[in-house]
């Protein structure tokens, strides 16, 4: 299993954890772009590529909040020509370019590719691995989830037949993944936001066995239904290699979006929640 892309530790100064299937790496966050004149839905950004790539921490602080490759966006190459999202992500895997946000127009975000700072190999390798992961996620969109028959720790079962006509939010995790547990309060707030919506299901698939999960969840509230012993399904049928991962299914059971962060799922969940039933 591949190690996830954030293997360059920023230490205690930054605080977000991501877990691969076999270890965890700590990293994170922070800080908006440069100047941003205009309205909320129409803004242009001044990008100083050299300054934003002066070191890994500066680049990552910017990228965490400003570059969300899981979202729907308009991609531009180094010559400012529009290219498909798949091509944009593919070029990032070369390690020769870095994406920056240049504009928001009519609520559509525009990213442009800039030459990478060759003196910062940690930036290059992180971009390459992140882009490869995003390609895997992107290619899952529109597919049906592999055949499943889940039984949660309360005995309730979930299958394509029982979830048809419902929006399903899936969280993948395991007890030893620090980042997976750290986000419990945030995912619980998402559940609360849709409280009373019987047409929206929140289900988590965990590596651990039932007894371990029951004991653990007594001291760590998770408002998702939780299905034990799902490691083989996640790794070998879904090809998930980083945790937490979140998948949104539409009412027909097709994958709408695959993301690492629950906040990136929010706009897509809202859209599905507003959609009419089958």
UniProtKB/TrEMBL annotation:
Domain Thioredoxin: 139-278
PANTHER family: PROTEIN DIPZ, THIOL:DISULFIDE INTERCHANGE PROTEIN DSBE
InterPro entries: AhpC/TSA, Thioredoxin-like_sf, Thioredoxin_CS, Thioredoxin_domain, Thioredoxin_ResA/DsbE_sf
Keyword Isomerase included in the entry's annotation: yes
Span of the signal peptide: 1-24
Keyword Protease annotated: no
Keywords assigned by UniProt, alphabetized: Isomerase, Redox-active center, Signal
Name the record gives this protein: Thiol-disulfide isomerase or thioredoxin
Residue ranges the record marks as coiled coil: none
Highest taxon of the lineage: Bacteria
GO molecular function: antioxidant activity; isomerase activity; oxidoreductase activity
Pfam family, one: AhpC-TSA
């Amino acid at each position: 299993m591949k190690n996830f892309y954030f293997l360059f530790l920023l230490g205690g100064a930054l605080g977000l954890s991501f877990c691969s299937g076999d270890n965890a790496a700590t990293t994170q966050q922070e800080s908006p772009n440069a100047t941003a004149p205009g309205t909320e839905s129409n803004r242009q950004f001044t990008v100083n590529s050299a300054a934003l790539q002066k070191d890994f921490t500066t680049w990552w602080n910017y990228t965490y909040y400003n570059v969300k490759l899981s979202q729907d966006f308009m991609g531009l190459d180094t010559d400012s020509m529009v290219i498909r999202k798949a091509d944009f992500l593919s070029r990032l895997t070369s390690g020769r370019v870095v994406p920056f946000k240049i504009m928001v127009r009519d609520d559509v975000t525009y990213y442009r590719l800039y030459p990478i700072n060759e003196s910062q190999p940690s930036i290059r390798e992180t971009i390459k691995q992140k882009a490869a992961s995003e390609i895997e996620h992107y290619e899952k969109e529109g597919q049906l989830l592999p055949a499943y028959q889940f039984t949660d720790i309360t005995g309730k079962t979930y299958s394509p037949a029982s979830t048809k006509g419902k929006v399903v939010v899936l969280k993948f995790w395991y007890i030893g993944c620090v980042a997976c547990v750290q986000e419990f309060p945030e995912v619980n707030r998402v559940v609360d936001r849709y409280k009373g919506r019987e047409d929206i299901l929140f289900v988590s698939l965990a590596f651990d066995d039932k007894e371990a999960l029951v004991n653990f969840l007594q001291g760590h509230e998770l408002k998702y239904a939780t299905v034990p012993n799902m490691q083989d399904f996640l790794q070998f049928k879904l090809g998930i290699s980083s945790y937490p991962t979140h998948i949104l299914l539409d009412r027909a059971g097709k994958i709408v979006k695959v993301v690492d962060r629950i906040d990136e799922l929010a706009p897509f969940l809202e859209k599905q929640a507003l959609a009419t039933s089958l």
